[in-house]
Amino acid sequence: MKGVEIIKHNPKHEDARGFVSVYVADEKMKEILMLKRKKGSVSGNHYHTGADPTRNPEIQYFVTGKIKLTVKNLDTNEKEEHILTENTEVKINPMIAHKMEMLEDTVFLEFHTEVSSYTDMTKVEL
């Protein structure tokens, strides 16, 4: 869907101990949030207008867990669902409503180019 980019990252190294995954963030990153969500919980159910540059686009990286991501382009009414797992990055542009349902306990990172004001969020029900 236009306005949503999903990138599955492959481990750079893997052995009996586990794996190493590399995420190269933009040099302008100033704030990184770590979010830990429990199975069955819901995050999102909102969209951003683009007024807050930290969410233009909104960038998240899923470290552990499994989620169902529902996205809806508010300009075209196109709607999609995706199952995301660890080592997956998602970029969500403004005016894309999004909801994340945790199918497992999940840890993810959210990257901001500025310290966020947390004001550019309009609630919707997906």
Kindly summarize this structure in a few lines:
This protein is mainly beta. The chain contains no helices and twelve strands.
Overall structural class, as computed from helix and strand content, comes to: mainly beta
Share of residues in helices: under 10%
**What are the segments in which pLDDT stays under 50 over at least 5 consecutive residues?**
none
Strand content: over 45%
Structure summary, number of beta strands: 12
Biggest sheet record = 5 strands, antiparallel
Write the layout of secondary structure elements.
Blueprint: E1 4-8, E2 13-15, E3 18-20, E4 31-37, E5 42-47, E6 58-64, E7 66-73, E8 79-85, E9 88-92, E10 96-102, E11 106-112, E12 122-123
Antiparallel strand pairs: 1-9, 2-3, 4-11, 5-10, 5-12, 6-9, 6-11, 7-8, 7-10
